């Protein structure tokens, strides 16, 4: 095809839907009052952060919730609060984003990366082997890009090996496994409210748990000072008594302004997830028919949220993949690539995390990421846009493979 005659896509892959009028009005009320800090409220007044915690705990069916500055800080607080000590070994799947190992590194723990398999989820056999080690107590499982592994097997492996599970649900808010919400399988779970996630406050995170001591520690760690009684999605006050003078303040709080923006979005979350999945399936149905593209099938127990899509170009070398990516980009379709030798933007492979020290040679992870492409599906794209994108991908792929 003559490049000058080729159809191009002109919408921005990073543009999200606007904040609702309800959220904007509430945010303006807070700005006019000046009461942005979560504890700067009138006596007996529930601030927006408190209300968000109550509502998200109810949505999740969890006892307790804490709103945090980011999902990374929520993971850090979860690790500290669950009892991870410097030098402890924490298992983590090798396909994830940098804030996940970053939270483990921040806790002072040692990171043991676990291989992945062709559906982009954690390798359960490798996990089983590594979880059996005497010095392993913890697993921080990342549901990376919304791909949920067999959670029945995860729980079984953790239980049999006395390993505590923390879930990173940055990409699975609103998703479930066999009817049970993602984020309710372990001791704690962490969610993201960063711009490109399922609810958007720019930055932010949510930590949920049913464990009273874990939540009490997390609240104090987050920077509650001695104002923890102002939290309502918390354990009884007596739980705080034995730890309040032994737990430092890391200042990882969310403020009322971000919480106000999030609360209307939470009310609409399930409908937004439905809209994402409709777009995802349109793209998936088109890509799966294309010669040269491989998309793993989803497990029937997995109810995912398709806010992004991943596919592989099996058998293709680096030169071909780079040419394909550049050709797509020249026509307005922005794809990420986890096989790049250098980290780019938000995308990095585990081989870039050199602060971990000697990196393991995870042959499956390297092989899988070498040909994996990744694409956001913002809700600012119409269903027609999704079809246009797949047409461009197919034409670019045919050009580089011909």
Report the helical percentage. Answer: 25-40%
Per CATH, the class of the largest domain reads: Alpha Beta
Number of strands: 13
Using the alpha-carbon principal axes, give the shape: globular
Overall number of domains: 2
CATH architecture of the largest domain: 3-Layer(aba) Sandwich
Looking at CATH, the homologous superfamily of the largest domain is Type I PLP-dependent aspartate aminotransferase-like (Major domain)
Number of helices: 13
The major beta sheet can be summarized as:
7 strands, mixed
Written as H for each helix and E for each strand, in order along the chain, the element string is: HHEHEHEHEHEEEEEHHHHEEHEHEH
Beta percentage is 5-15%
Which ranges are low-confidence, i.e. pLDDT below 50, for 5 or more consecutive residues?
none
Rg value: 22 Å
Q: What are the salient characteristics of this protein?
A:
alpha/beta, Aspartate Aminotransferase, domain 1, 14% strand, 13 strands, 13 helices, 2 domains, 7-stranded mixed sheet, 3-stranded antiparallel sheet, 402 residues, Aspartate Aminotransferase, domain 2
Structure, briefly:
The protein is 37% helix and 14% strand. It has 13 helices and 13 strands. It starts with 20 loop residues before the first helix and ends with a helix.
Question: How do the helices and strands line up, and which of them pair or pack?
Answer:
Blueprint lengths: L20 H13 L14 H13 L3 E5 L2 H12 L6 E5 L5 H8 L3 E5 L9 H8 L4 E7 L8 H10 L3 E5 L7 E2 L2 E2 L6 E5 L12 E5 L2 H11 L15 H4 L14 H12 L1 H19 L14 E2 L4 E5 L5 H13 L5 E2 L25 H8 L1 E5 L6 H19 L1
Parallel strand pairs: 2-3, 2-4, 4-5, 5-8
Antiparallel strand pairs: 1-9, 6-7, 6-10, 8-9, 11-13, 12-13
Helix pairs in contact: 1-9, 2-9, 3-4, 3-7, 5-6, 10-13, 11-13
């Amino acid at each position: 095809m003559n490049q000058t005659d080729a159809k191009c896509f002109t919408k921005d892959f990073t543009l999200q839907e606007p904040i609702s009028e309800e959220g904007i009005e509430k945010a303006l009320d807070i700005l006019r009052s000046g009461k942005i800090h979560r504890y700067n409220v009138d006596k007996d007044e529930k601030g927006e952060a408190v209300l968000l915690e109550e509502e998200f705990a109810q949505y999740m069916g969890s006892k307790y919730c804490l709103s945090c500055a980011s999902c990374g800080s929520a993971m850090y607080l979860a690790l500290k609060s669950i009892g991870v000590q410097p030098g402890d070994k924490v298992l983590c799947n090798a396909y994830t984003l940098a804030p996940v190992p970053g939270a483990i590194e921040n806790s002072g723990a040692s990171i043991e990366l676990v291989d992945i398999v062709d559906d982009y989820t954690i390798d359960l056999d490798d996990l089983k082997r590594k979880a059996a080690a005497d010095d392993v107590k913890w697993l921080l499982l990342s549901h990376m890009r919304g791909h949920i592994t067999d959670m029945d097997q995860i729980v079984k492996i953790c239980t049999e090996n006395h390993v505590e599970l923390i879930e990173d649900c940055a990409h699975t808010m609103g998703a479930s496994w066999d009817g049970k919400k993602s984020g309710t399988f372990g001791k704690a779970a962490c969610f993201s409210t960063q711009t490109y996630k399922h609810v958007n406050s720019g930055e932010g995170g949510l930590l949920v748990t049913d464990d009273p001591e874990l939540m009490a520690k997390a609240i104090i760690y987050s920077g509650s000072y001695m104002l923890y009684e102002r939290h309502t999605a918390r354990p009884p006050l007596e739980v705080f008594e034995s730890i309040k003078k032994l737990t430092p303040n890391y200042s990882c709080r969310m403020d009322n302004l971000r919480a106000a923006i999030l609360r209307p979005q939470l009310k609409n979350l399930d409908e937004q997830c439905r809209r994402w999945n409709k777009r995802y399936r349109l793209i998936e149905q088109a890509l799966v028919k294309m010669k040269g593209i491989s998309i793993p099938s989803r497990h029937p127990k997995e109810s995912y949220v398709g806010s992004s899509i991943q596919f592989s170009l099996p058998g293709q070398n680096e030169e071909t993949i780079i040419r394909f990516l550049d050709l797509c980009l020249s026509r307005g379709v922005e794809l990420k690539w986890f096989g790049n030798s250098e980290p780019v933007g938000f995308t990095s492979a585990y081989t870039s995390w050199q602060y971990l020290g000697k990196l393991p040679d995870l042959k499956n992870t390297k092989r899988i990421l070498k040909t994996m492409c990744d694409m956001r599906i913002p809700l600012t794209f119409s269903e027609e846009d999704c079809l246009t994108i797949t047409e461009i991908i197919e034409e670019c792929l045919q050009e580089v493979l011909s």
